[in-house]
């Protein structure tokens, strides 16, 4: 697989989002299956794996995904780039704990979970408005100097926030929502990141499976811990309304002997030299299919035709790439998690 740069790091041009092995897409697979899936991805050529401290049951099994990924990559840890994320809550600082101390505590827990002594790419997982992210940026420089992390990044941010953090400690990557049906990043994030040599790492680049064409208007998602219930494009009415986009993808996938999902990934790889998508799935077949998009190359003419066709479509069900804008999606997801945790405690 071809390589791309994230700061000083070299990664496969398509990475792997590992969240689905621990939560977010209904019932999780058996551990052995998940570990095998990650190892198959590595054998395919993937060298970039993404996780987070909160992927799993936050209350009853924090760190589940990090532990799983750590087990899977143990034999080839030095040959890959590991990314994980942390979130700071103001309560952690209430007793006089410094932002450095709180961040270091999160990082040490992740290092233990991942069974490693450094993290290649450490993200601030969403910006908490009550915790000064400029101070977090300063802490990241210190962690880099200490050799505990190699690069740092931010997630779900706009260009203004990114610029303020980047001025303190250079940011290597921004992990934002970006796909054919969520293109806000093209307005502010991509221009800024291209100018300042920052990688953009899209999560949900296949729009939670919508762009694969495998999700239909009558598809029923799992009742427990399936975030797709709250994704705007996956409501019945929006799946129907956005059908023209799938028709365009189907036309190109037939011509290129590829799948819809592969065309959607090939489109962004062709469009931006600094993009490194991290499609996620808990299904081994889908994971290898997504990575196979690296073998699908659009010509300049094909890209122009695809781009023109997409630009002529109206997208129904907008979510937005900045976390503070995602009021409905975030609230519904958090309310469900709180309800599950309450039931488990009982």
TrEMBL record:
Pfam families: Aldo_ket_red. The keyword Oxidoreductase applies. It comes from the Bacteria. Residues 13-309 form the NADP-dependent oxidoreductase domain. Signal peptide: none annotated. The keyword Oxidoreductase applies. InterPro entries: AKR, Aldo-Keto_reductase, NAD(P)_OxRdtase_dom_sf, NADP_OxRdtase_dom. Keywords: Oxidoreductase. PANTHER family: AFLATOXIN B1 ALDEHYDE REDUCTASE, ALDO-KETO REDUCTASE. This is Aldo/keto reductase.
